[in-house]
Amino acid sequence: MSLLKYQIFVKVVEVGSLTKVGEMLKLTQSAISHAISGLEHELGLTLLIRSRSGIKLTDNGERLLHHFKEIIQLNEKLHQEVALIKGLEIGTVRIGTFSSVSIQWLPRLLKEYHDQFPLIEAKLLDGNYHEIENWIVSGEVDFGFVNAPTQEGLEVIPLKNDRMLCILPSNHVLREQSIIRLEQIVDLPFIMPVAGCDIDVLRIFSQHKLSPKIQYEVEDDHAIMSMVQHGLGVSILPEMILSQTQYDLCIRPLDGEHSRSIGIAAVSFKNVSPAAKKFIDFIAARVDKL
Fold first, then answer.
1. Which residues fall within 8 angstroms of residue 13, CB to CB, at 6 or more apart?
2. N or C: which end of the chain has fewer CB within 10 A?
3. Mean pLDDT of 126-137
C-alpha cells in the first residue's frame, strides 16, 4: 500500500473536502477520489461515506484513522533519523499552541529556530487547552503548549508561572486599589473567559469558596478586554495576554498568589521525533529570556 494514500486519506478527513485537499496537494479531485477508492479496495473496507452534505468516516474508517496517522508519523521520524545519520537536520514539527503563547513567544522562537535549523519546518495548530491535549494524545501534534496539570498520560516540562490579573474599566471605583481582593469583585458583573481559561478563573474563586456573578461567557481575549473597557463587567486574565494590551484598562494583581502553569507536553518525550526533540530543547533553553 502506498504511503501517499494514507496521507491523502488523513488529509481528506481533516479538511473535509476532496477538492480542497486536491488544491493543497496540487492534485485533481479525480486523483484524490481514486486514491481513496484504491485504499478502500486494497483493504476491502469502506472508509468514507460521501454525500452532498460532505464526508463522514465509517466505523471502520474511525478505527483505522489513528493507525494511518501513526504510520505517517513513523515515516517522518524514519526520514529524520536517516537525515541525522547523514549529518542533516530536517523534518516537520507539529505544535499545538494557544493564543497568548502564539502572540508572545512563538514569533521570536520560530524566527530564531528557523535561522538555526532552516530545513526543519514548524506547523502550528491553534486551539484551547482541551483541544491541544487531545491533539497530543491523538497524534495530531508532536507536542503542545499546555496549562498544567494536564490529563493523565501526558509528560510535561514546566516553563513559566503566568500570573492571573484582575482587569477593570479604567474609571472603576476600585482603580485606586493596588491589589484586588476577590470579595471586592464577587458581586460585580463578571466576564468569564471560556474554552480553557475558565479553569484557572474558577479555581481561583473556588479556593476562596466564592462564585463569580457571571454576566457573559466569552472565548476571545480581545473581546473580553474590549467589553471590560466599555464597562460591561470585570474579568481575570493571564499576564501574558495583558502585557501588550492597547485597551484602556485598570490592571491589578489579585490578593494572594494566583497563576497558571504553562508547560510543554507530549505523550513521551523519549519517543518524539528528532526534529521535535530539537525544538523542545530549544524552547526550554530560551523561555526564561522571553
1. 48, 55, 57, 61, 65
2. N
3. 91
Q: Strand (E) positions, the chain?
A: 48-51, 54-57, 91-97, 120-126, 143-148, 155-169, 189-193, 213-218, 235-238, 249-253, 259-266
CB atoms within 10 A of CB 78: 11
Q: What confidence tens digit (pLDDT) does each residue in 140-190 have?
A: 899 999 998 888 889 999 999 999 999 999 999 999 999 999 999 999 999
Instruction: In the chain, count H helices and then E strands.
Output: 12, 11
Q: To the nearest 5 percent, what fractions of the chain are helix, strand and coil?
A: 50, 25, 25
Residues 166 and 255 in one domain: yes
- CATH number, domain at 28? 1.10.10.10
> pLDDT tens for residues 234-244?
999 999 989 88
Question: Same structural domain for residues 131 and 269?
Answer: yes
Whole-angstrom distance, CA of residue 230 vs CA of residue 186: 19
Q: What is the pLDDT of residue 251?
A: 96
**Nine-digit cell string for 18:** 476532496
Find the Cα–Cα–Cα–Cα dihedral 190, 195, 201, 202, rounded to 10°. Answer: 90
Higher pLDDT, 288 or 65: 65
**Of 9, 102, 4, 3, residue with least CA distance to 50:** 9
